[in-house]
Every structure is written in C-alpha cells, then in structure tokens.
Amino acid sequence: MEASVRKQVDRFCRQYLQLEQTLDYPEPQYIRLPEVQDSIYQRLFADDSLPGGPPPLRYQVRVLKELISRIEVSIEDWDAQGVSDGLMSSLSVLFSTPAPNEDDAAQQKCRVVYHLASLPGHEAHINLFENRSLIAAGGTTGLRTWEAALHLGQLLCRDPSIVSGKRVLELGTGTGYLAILCVKYLGSTHVIASDGSDDVINNLPENLFLNQLEGSDAIRPMDLKWGYALVGTEEERWNGGRPLDVVLGADITYDPSIIPDLVSTLLELFGIYPHVEVIIAATQRNLETFQVFLAKCRDEALKVEDVSFEIPSRDQQEGPFYNDQVAIRICRVSKL
C-alpha cells in the first residue's frame, strides 16, 4: 500500500478507535481498493482484532454502514470491484446483535484508544475506559477525557523535559490520561494522580491496568479534595515529605464555585514546595469562568503567564484528535 494511502487508512482507524463522531474516510479512489478494505477490516472489524473490546454497538453499526455506503458509491466497475466480504459479514453480525437501550448504553464505560502521533514509534497510544456521556450519574465530569488534557498532553510530548525525570502531581486527573502519559512515555520519576471524586479514584486502577501500569511504583492514585488542609493530624508532612517538581491540571477551572478551593490548594502546595512548577490548561468555553480564576490568583499574589502552544488544525491532527474551534489556554502559575 502506498504511503499516501496508508496515511488515510491510519487516520481513519485512529479516529474510529478514539470514538470520534466525525471521521475522515479514505478518498473514493482508495476506499474501493481491496487492500484498503481488507486493512480496515483486519484492524477494526475482524474477530479479535480489538483485544480490549470493540466500541459501543451503535457506534460500530453507524460507522460500518457509512463505510460500506461510501465504498458502494466509489465503485465504477462492479465486475472488477466490490465490497469486502469481511465488511459485509461484519455488518450482518452487528445487525443481528441485540442493542442495549439508550439509557443503559449511556452509563456503560467503553474503551477509547488515543494515538500519540507526536511520539516516536508507530504504536505509542493510551488505552482508557471512559463514560462518554457528558456527566455521569454521580455528577462528575471526570470519567471521560476532555480537550484540555489532550492539548496539554501534546505540549508535554513536544517538550518532555517539563516532566521527564521529575515528580509530578496531577490535580483533577479524571481518566488518568496525563498521569499515564507522563509515566508510560515521558519519563516522569513518579506521578500522583489525584482527584476529589470517589468514582474517578475507583476507575483509575482499571485504566492503569489497560496501560500495563498496575502495581507500578511510578504512579499512585490519591484522593485529594481541594480546599482541605494537605497535612492532617496523623502526618507531619504531606506525601511523606517526598519532593514534588511539577503540578499539572487540565479543565479544572470550569466551575466558578470550586475556584477558591483550587487556589487555596495551590497556595498550600507553593508553601510546601516554593519552587514547584504549576501548569494548567483550560478550555475557553466560558471566558467569564476563567476570569474568576485569574482574579482569584491576583488576589492571592499568584502570577499567571500564558504558554504559547497552538491547537493544530483538524486536518493536520494525526492523533489524538480534538476540537480545533474552541480555544484552549495553557498557563504557568507561580507565587509572586
């Protein structure tokens, strides 16, 4: 398969595994080729092609129906060309499989694969179990990976020195995407994946297992609720007095009501670790919300500096894929 064709197939497969709603299907002159159809079938739809489990049934059906429709439209000579038997057979099996009702499907976790195109090596990726509904029943947004985490992860992939060889604390870790990235690919010495949600903390071991990090001494989940004292009555020093070099946070400023507690925790961390580097990424869906964060930082003598790192346009993204139409702001926070 020519490199230009393989690139289109790779892009489509990566988007499918990331459960993207909008996929870039190979162009008509390529999608009708038997080798292209066979490659897609073997990678996405053949039995046991996805050891971690397939995407949700409705997603599989929607994508495969669209794929076959595009193949049929692209065919110019039905005597010489056709639709892959494997793809047609897969669609038949999917149609005969009972689908869960929509309410049950919305609460189910599904496997999502994020390809890391910025890193050397074709196989760099992160596997996560996520709940793709916007907010889970418990009210937490931490059971799926949001754009700011993907964008901050891209910055770290481009400049691994930010976390390489360092001890990292992630605030609001959610699915653990950034924490896993730092340990698995970027050479962090140790990462604390912290969150204040019990649902999130209980979900993390499963995602660590998916990424061969179960039992690893390099990463540790931690229940950390902002606004509460880091050092309790049973310990003299937080985290056993171990050093900390970097604090990361992605999409943790989305709710104005939690910002005072977040800033309080940052102040306490600066008190314990005066030279710690704090990097926060925020999706700018509501500019007023981030202004609340900036104002609170000013009131508490915290300096916030922008880090210049543009979102790649959608057509230039090779994985992970995320919205290029919503601004994502990355900032360094320091104590004045």
TrEMBL record:
Gene Ontology molecular functions: S-adenosylmethionine-dependent methyltransferase activity
Please name the CDD domains in this protein's record: AdoMet_MTases
Give a GO cellular-component term. cytoplasm
Gene3D superfamilies in the cross-refs: Vaccinia Virus protein VP39
Tree of life domain? Eukaryota
The protein in question is named FAM86 N-terminal domain-containing protein
Source species of the chain:
Hypocrea virens (strain Gv29-8 / FGSC 10586) (Gliocladium virens)
Q: Write the lineage as a comma-separated list.
A: Eukaryota, Fungi, Dikarya, Ascomycota, Pezizomycotina
